[in-house]
Amino acid sequence: MERAMMRWLVPLLLLPNLAVAAGRTPYGGEVVAYIWGASLSRAPANLQTFADATVQGALFEGLYAIDAQGRVVPELASALPTISGRRALIPLRAGVKLHDGRPLTASMIASALESLAAQDSTSKHIVLPIEGARDGGPLRIAPSAQGDALEVSLAVPYPELARLWASPRARIALGEVGTGPFRLGPEPRPNATVLLPFLGHRDGRPFLDRVELRQHASRFGAFSIFRKRKASLVFSVPDTRRRPKGLLRWGPHPKTLLILSIGRGLVDRSKDPAALRRAIDAVLNRRLLAQRYLGAGARPVRALAVKDLANPSDSGQAKREPLTAKLLISKDARELPGFAMTVQTKLIRAGVQATIEKRSAQYIAERRRTGDYELLIDSILPDEVSNAPIDQLHALMSIAAAYGRADAISDTALSRAADPSFDHKAIAELERSLRERLMLIPIADRPPSIAVRDDLRRAMPSTSGSLELQGAYQQPGSKK
Amino acid sequence: MSPSIALAVLGLIASAPTTPAPRSLDQAITKLVNALSLSSVRGYDPTFDTALLVRLERTAPKFQARAEGLLRARLTQHGVLGLMPISLAQEANPTEAATERGADWLITVRGRFSGQNARGLELHAELSAIDPGLWAPAGPISIYASATITQDQPNAPPPPPPAQASLPELLGPPIKINERSSSVVALAACSLLSSELEQLVVLNSEALEVFSFAQGRLRPLARLELGALPRSASPAREPLGTIRCGPDRIAFGHSDLASGYVLSVQRTSSPDELRLSVLEPLDGLPILSGTGGWIVAKLEAGTSRYGRQLQRSTRGTAEVITAQHEYLELEPIRGQPRSLIGVTEDYRLVRLDKDLKVRGVLGTSGVGACALSRKGQPFVLTTSTELDAAMDRLTILTLVEGRRHERDAMAIEGQVFACATGAFRSPGRTDVIVAAQGPDHSALLSLELRWSAP
Known about the structure:
The complex is a heterodimer. Chain A is 26% helix and 20% strand. Chain A has 13 helices and 22 strands. In chain A, the strands form 6 sheets. Chain A has a 6-stranded mixed beta sheet with strand order 8-9-10-1-11-18. The two termini of chain A are 30 Å apart. Residues 1-22 of chain A have low confidence and may be disordered. Chain B is mainly beta. Chain B is built from 4 helices and 29 strands. In chain B, strands 22-21-20-19-23-24-25-26 form an 8-stranded mixed beta sheet, with no helix packed on it. Chain B has a 5-stranded mixed beta sheet with strand order 2-1-3-4-5, sandwiched between helices. In chain B, a hairpin with a 4-residue loop joins β20 and β21 (348-352). The chains are: A alpha+beta, B mainly beta. Chains A and B meet through α1 of A and loops of B.
C-alpha cells in the first residue's frame, strides 16, 4: 500500500506537470504565484531572473525561439532568415496582433531591436552582429518594401543570427504591450503583476483565466508559503542546506551565475589589477560558499562558460596589495547575509579591506553596466541553452552585455562562429580573455528554485529559463 | 454362494460410492494455469503482488464465481501468494484499480462459450506487468505470458438469455493508415462517388482532404487548402472542427477559420480526382442540416467549447437555438439524420434531437466520439475521459429500454480527437477510422466493426 501511495506522491512531487488530462484541456483557473527576492522586471532587455523570464515569456514573443528539442523555430518570423554574406532577410509572420489590437508591423520590430543598441542597454549583444551596433546605432535594419520582412546589414557574416535572436532578451516589447499569449491586467495591489489571457493570440487563448504574481519581501514568509503549499507557484524558494522537496526539476541550462566583479573604482587604484584579480580568485573558497550559502543544487565554478571543462586556475603568485573597497550587493539578493560576509572575510587574505554596501537592484544593475563601482557581487542569467559552442558564445556575449561591455566581443570573434573549427577550445580562450578584461570572478552557478503545486499542470520549463504558461491549466476544483 | 452372502455382496455393491462427475471446469482452469507456466516467466516472482481479473462472457454468475475460486486456488498452488481479485462490476478501470491497490502484476482471464450447443469453454489468460517501478516511466502495459485452452463443459449451466442489445465487436489491432503533422479535428464518411463505397474526409489545420480506400491504402482524391481562407479573430488553442456530408456537398468548419463553408464536390474526367470549390460561407461550424439550411455553432470566447447559442438558418431567416450545455462535441448519428450525440463540458454523453434538446443520457465519453445506428438502434464509440499512460480507450455503448450496455473495445495510443464509421473498404463491412493525437502528429488508425450474427 505504501508503495502504491509512493507511486502517486513521488511523481506529483518531482514532476508536477504530469499531463493527466480529461478529453479537452479545461479552461479557467486563477493562479497565484509568489516571487521572493529581486523585483520583477517586465522588460526583456532587463531580464535577470527566472521569474522575469516567465512573465516576459507570457507577455512577449521574439522573432525566433528555441523549441524543446533545441532547434530554432520561427515565432514572429515566418521562416528562418535567408543570410547571404552580410545581408540577412527575415520574413515576418502576417496577421500578428498586439495586445492593444494593433497589427504588429516590421517597423515596430525594427524599432524594438534598435532600442537594444542604446548606450544604456544591457542586452546590446542581441544586435551586436548588425552594422551600426558598435557605434550605438542607428542599426542598419529596415522593413522591406512590402513590409513583410526585415532587411538587415550585418557587420560580419553571422549565420547563427536566428539562434541569437531566439534569446529571451530579444523578445519584441513595445513598452508593456506585446504579442504573447497573455496580456497585462490591472494591478490589484502594488508590486503585483496580473496576467490575463490574450484572446487574439494566433494559437488561441491560453487555458488559465488569470495569473497573479506577488512580490514577497520576507524570506521566512516565502518559505512558509512554499512549505504549506499556499500558492500554485513560488519563484526563488529560499535556499536551505538540502534542496527542498517539491521543486521543479530543471535541465542543465540555463542557470544563474554568481559573479564577483572588480569595477573601475578599484582597477584605477590598483597597481596591478590582473594580479589583484588572480589574488581574489585564489582566496575564494567556492565550495564552501556554494554549499553553505547557496543551497543544494549550487555548483562552484571558475569559468563563465564551458564550465565543465577543466579550466586552469587563475591563481598564481601575487603580491598582496593593501586596498580598501566597497562591496556592493543587492539588498534583495538571496545570498544575504552570510555569503557576502564570507566573501568579505576572504578578501582580506587578498589584501582588500571591503565594507559591504546594500543597494537596490536597479542601482546595482546601473553600476554593473557602467562599471562605476569597486567590487560587486551579482547574479546574471546568461543566454545559455546548451553546451554547444555557439550557445556558449551567446552566453559569453550576454554576460559581457550585462556588464556594459558587449564590445568586448570583437567582430573577429563573431566571424569565427561561422568557422567549422569553432569549438570549445576557442570558447575557452574567449572566456578566459573576457574574464581578464572585464575583471570577472565567477563563483557558482545554480538552477532555479521554482515550486509548482500539483494543481497547476503542464507549466513546462523551457531552455530560455521561463516557465511556459500558455499551455498550463489548473486542475478543476482546485483552490487558489 | 449362500443367499445371505450374495445379498451382502449386492448390498455392498449397491452402497459403494459412485465415481463423481468429471470436474471439467477445474480441469480447464488447471490446464490454463499450467499453460501460463508462471515459474518460467522471466522477471516474474510469485511473491509479487498480483491482481486477478476474471471476465467470462455470458455466463451465469455462479459459474463465474466458481471459475474465480478455482483460479485463485490453482494460482495459490503455483505459489502466487499475494493475489488480489479485482471485481469488474465495481471498477470502471480495472487496471488502474489494480495499480492503485499496489499490484505489480495483473493476471487477466477471459473466457466465453462457443462451439456446438455453446458448451466449449475458451479460456485465455495473460500475465502483464502493470507497475514497472517508481523510477521507470509509465508506458504501454507489457504482456509477459499468455495461454489459451478450450475445453468442453458438459455440466456448465446454460448461458443467460442474450442481452437485447447485441453489441458489435471492434476488431484490431489498430492499423496506422496515414499520418498528419497537424491535429486532425474531424473525420467523416461521405458518399461522393457513384459507388457503394464511401470516402473518408479529413480535416486538420492545413487542409480538408478527401480519400478513397484502395487495396488497404488511402488514396487522395481532393484537397482544399485552408491557408488562404480568412482566419478567426480568436482561434482555439486546442482546435476543433466539424464535417457534414450531403449529395455532392461537404460542409465543414474549423476553429481557426472565420467561417464555416459549404463546398461543392465535382467529379472530373479522372476517376481518381474530385474537385472541391467553395459554394457559400456559413456563420459558424455546421452541426446539422435541416430543411433549407444549417444549424451552426460558434466557439465560446476562444475556448474549445461550443457556445450555448446556436443558429438555425432557414430560407434566409436566422433563429437562435439555446442549447442546454456548452458542448465539447456534437456529432450526428449515422443513419438517423435528425439525431445527434453531444459530449457536455463535464463529459456526459447525451442524445439530442434536431432542436438540440437532450433526449437521454447515454453515459460518459471524452471527445472524439462517433455514433451510428443499426436497425434503429444507436451505437456510440466513446473515448476515455482521462488518459491512461498516454493511451485512450474506445468503448462501444448503447442504451436499450433504459439499460446501458457497454463493451470495452480497444486501447489506442495517443488521444482520440475524431472518429468516423463507414463502408470504406467493402459494402458489407463497417470500418472505423480514428484520429489519435500524439506529441507532434496525428495518426489515422483503421479498425473493423463486426456485428454479431442476428
